[in-house]
């Protein structure tokens, strides 16, 4: 009889713990999404200024972006507001992830590894997004528009331009986090600097393949992306040496 009682107590304790985890997860999701909605609403009030800044690379080729559908101006403002809110909310989202997972990280090594990724991600993402906006997008537009020569003139809609822009910003934002992920894995003992040095030639080849995929089909743009990727790999090796197990 006592064994049955103890078993029931363990089951109740396990169920209670699972409910607490679900409630904590729900709380963190609500806080993360609430921050996103709030910051997107704030960005909406500044969406005109944000949009004017974002279209600067395009204005070298045409005075203003056009729209071809009645709903396109509204959708463009909404898209800018939501993405701006998401970027501004990134530290809050990462903090909520940290707050939910950190209690389960028992050892100092686990907390350090996860902390490197969580707190380094926004900084490297911002670096990748800035590199995309100030370097890759202007060169990409220049190359693509050069095919028009004197036969065609650009008439780019705001929707297609924002899609073009945001793909590069998000893609390079994630790609630039290679050193952060590598440092976290090194801190956890899953990779080390020697291992990365041994794979250097494959990493360089992969850098040019990735650059060819995410850039316009011209050699200059691919090199402009591939060189930072190679440098990021070298930075990853240095950071892995610093954060070695």
SSE order and pairing:
Layout: H1 2-45, H2 47-54, H3 72-88, H4 90-101, H5 108-146, H6 158-175, H7 178-187, H8 193-198, H9 200-214, H10 219-242
Helix pairs in contact: 1-3, 1-4, 2-3, 4-5, 5-6, 5-7, 5-10, 7-10, 9-10
What does this structure look like?
79% of the residues lie in helices and 0% in strands. The longest helix has 44 residues, at 2-45. It has one domain (2-242). The chain has ten helices and no strands. The N and C termini lie far apart (49 Å).
Describe this structure in a few short sentences:
The protein is mainly α and 245 residues long. The protein has helices at residues 2-45, 47-54, 72-88, 90-101, 108-146, 158-175, 178-187, 193-198, 200-214, 219-242.
Feature tags:
single chain, 245 residues, mainly alpha, 10 helices, disordered N terminus
> Quick one: biggest sheet?
none
Output the helix-strand order.
HHHHHHHHHH
Shape: flat
Number of separate strands: 0
Number of domains: 1
Helix percentage? over 70%
> Low-confidence parts lasting 5 or more residues at pLDDT below 50?
1-5
C-alpha-based Rg, rounded: 23 Å
Number of H- or I-type helical stretches: 10
N-to-C CA distance: 49 Å
The computed structural class is mainly alpha
